[in-house]
Amino acid sequence: xxxxxxxxxxxxxxxxxxxxxxxxxxxxxxxxxxxxxxxxxxxxxxxxxxxxxxxxxxxxxxxxxxxxxxxxxxxxxxxxxxxxxxxxxxxxxxxxxxxxxxxxxxxxxxxxxxxxxxxxxxxxxxxxxxxxxxxxxxxxxxxxxxxxxxxxxxxxxxxxxxxxxxxxxxxxxxxxxxxxxxxxxxxxxxxxxxxxxxxxxxxxxxxxxxxxxxxxxxxxxxxxxxxxxxxxxxxxxxxxxxxxxxxxxxxxxxxxxxxxxxxxxxxxxxxxxxxxxxxxxxxxxxxxxxxxxxxxxxxxxxxxxxxxxxxxxxxxxxxxxxxxxxxxxxxxxxxxxxxxxxxxxxxxxxx
Amino acid sequence: xxxxxxxxxxxxxxxxxxxxxxxxxxxxxxxxxxxxxxxxxxxxxxxxxxxxxxxxxxxxxxxxxxxxxxxxxxxxxxxxxxxxxxxxxxxxxxxxxxxxxxxxxxxxxxxxxxxxxxxxxxxxxxxxxxxxxxxxxxxxxxxxxxxxxxxxxxxxxxxxxxxxxxxxxxxxxxxxxxxxxxxxxxxxxxxxxxxxxxxxxxxxxxxxxxxxxxxxxxxxxxxxxxxxxxxxxxxxxxxxxxxxxxxxxxxxxxxxxxxxxxxxxxxxxxxxxxxxxxxxxxxxxxxxxxxxxxxxxxxxxxxxxxxxxxxxxxxxxxxxxxxxxxxxxxxxxxxxxxxxxxxxxxxxxxxxxxxxxxxxxxxxxxxxxxxxxxxxxxxxxxxxxxxxxxxxxxxxxxxxxxxxxxxxxxxxxxxxxxxxxxxxxxxxxxxxxxxxxxxxxxxxxxxxxxxxxxxxxxxxxxxxxxxxxxxxxxxxxxxxxxxxxxxxxxxxxxxxxxxxxxxxxxxxxxxxxxxxxxxxxxxxxxxxxxxxxxxxxxxxxxxxxxxxxxxxxxxxxxxxxxxxxxxxxxxxxxxxxxxxxxxxxxxxxxxxxxx
Lengths: 351, 595
Known about the structure:
- The complex is a heterodimer.
- The longest helix of chain A is centred in the N-terminal third of the chain and has 15 residues.
- Chain A is of the alpha/beta class.
- In chain A, the strands form 2 sheets. In chain A, strands 2-1-3-4-8-7-12-9-11-10 form a 10-stranded mixed sheet, sandwiched between helices. A two-stranded antiparallel sheet of chain A has the order 5-6.
- By secondary structure, chain B is α/β, with parallel strands linked by helices.
- Chain B has 3 domains: about 190 residues, no CATH class; about 170 residues, FAD/NAD(P)-binding domain, CATH 3.50.50; about 140 residues, FAD/NAD(P)-binding domain, CATH 3.50.50.60.
- Chain B has a 5-stranded parallel sheet, covered by helices on one side. In chain B, strands 6-13-7-8-9 form a 5-stranded parallel sheet. Chain B has a 3-stranded antiparallel sheet with strand order 10-11-12, with no helix packed on it.
- At the A-B interface, helix 1 and helix 8 of A face helix 7, helix 20 and helix 22 of B.
């Protein structure tokens, strides 16, 4: 951390978005993570994405559990709603919050420990329910807060800072999400904002559970020679399979795409995700093919990044459960709590 | 772009906008830090090393540093650099024992300086400690030149002048007062001096030859009138005074007239306010005292009735600005009643005492041909400086001319070509004290610029010597010093250490930093986090970074020098290093640096 807060003064040429805010308006308090932490770059990308989407900060709820990653919601959108819950229980929080008020934009930030160890079951069920939220998994392969033990996402053979190799198989969050039926699965790298920001924007616009796993190096415990989650290793081994460009609903496509390599997916709100650089043998709307491709490349030592899978028609938890559209706090008390006579009537249906 | 060479003495110097803009390159951030620590004496000496007259300039400088100040581009108003200079001068301890002294054993060389103004005094200041015998010829009975006779005491008290001039004269300069040089040829032919420096200023006020000019004794030339006021030859003035011209001399004239009893003082300008030559703060000070400043008026004649001056007639202009140039057309006439007119429309050089045909060439506008680097004329051994060299400028330019001429005179007397200038240098020292501690106050202070308090209105008109500006209070000083961004504490980057984690880019409050593929400067300037459209400010480009082959680019324009990039850097690729620019004076004496 730093001893001084980031000065409020900003560059005189900073642009305003559609609702008159500059990027600095989307910041939170100054980070307390280690200098050089990948998570801070992810935070900066989140700030950029919300600014570009011209989101009103107070229409956002940010949720997290425990861990370095889970501290980061403090560092963006200081005017948003937020809840920092029990270790690994963020998926339940986001599910509950979303059930009560589907009008807010939900972002959950988690780490490989919070999501793939203590909270693994929680994550799986949030995916199954297709909760309408952006789920960011900041993946560094170690437990940074407890001095750098291997986490569940550490690759076999990856060396710890002390030089010992990891022996256990890794859980790949993206493969897990594909298996559980996630409707939006992406992988990115904290050091590549050009790729990450459009993915975050697409994930926020996606109706349903948008899962983005981001390699976010731990500069203190996992950025050494022999680590497979370091800045240098990730840069050497990452392969972008699908480049996603997010296009706002109101905006015409101005970028020229080579017709042979482009696919467009329209989201529920009319915005589009323009997919380019799609590898010849890849189809980002084919779940099984995506799974196989990621596995193949992983065996070849490559980290596949980009928008790996998107289900063009996705129905979220509210649609599936046929719940009321309005936030519960907007419903009159009599509707929310119809009284004991109504309860009796309901119960007789089950006798 | 090729990687920036930060070892070049000019790169980081340019980043210190105030120091770069100061003709004498005063190390402003260094002395402001010393003031912040209450080390007024050291702050004074840092100033004196460059500008020689901190107490005088702290009241009268034209302040080229302030419009250049980075703070202006950040929050709209510059640091009150000049006021802080005065704080150091006012609150210092005795410094006489800390001023360089002349050696008792002389080097056998004799130098004549003509005129006892700031240029000549600076030459004496630089040459005396090297063992030269220096003689100053001055036509008036006292030293100081225009600093003394043209700047009224209510802006610059005499004790301040006496003390700072005294530090130089007391090194053992031979002062020949009341001795105007009437023939340069005779002086040179006497063979008494190894070098001659002409620092005689631009002593002739410009005339306005329009009908009626010679018909009244109530029409004065500004600088002559101010001199008469200074020596007490004039102690009253008419009640309705018109000043023609809006330079700083006009401001001194109008405010002096108020103190000599004028009830109605008008300053009349041909152009519009944007084009006025007077410093904005001097205009404000005059207006605060009830002086009326009129624009768009061109004098055409003096109006006399029975031999008595009763007014002045003007053409009235309408002004419009077309493509940045002022265009004016006559739209009418008007007469402004007055009983006194003071002409302050500029000054000319005058060298009736320099003979032609002595090997000293005269060029355009009958001005001597003087080299802009060496300050030597076409006759070896004769040097010029101050207003005498290139026409009227200001005190701080005269000081810098003096420094450069002193280097040349020293070379000339030691048989070294005058074109051989001592090299500039830059020394970088890390300011890192601990993980998050720096040897300077790195936090940004959002306070606004402090306003100088003035002596109350009726009191200040009682006499000519009541200094109007009270100087900053302790509280004002404490606030103002923290507004300085410490631009001399430089962001220093080591490309081989960078792991491209983006931490510096994410934390930078003013979006100075970008990691991007290299390109030509014009292209690169458009591809940064914030467009670098201020081309007066350099951009830094690193060598290729290890992991991706991209480069780190920094736009220096609005950097707060807060050090957050260095605090957030995990590999110490960024460091905050204090740059001391070494700008040698005569004898290549090392610039005074306090540690």
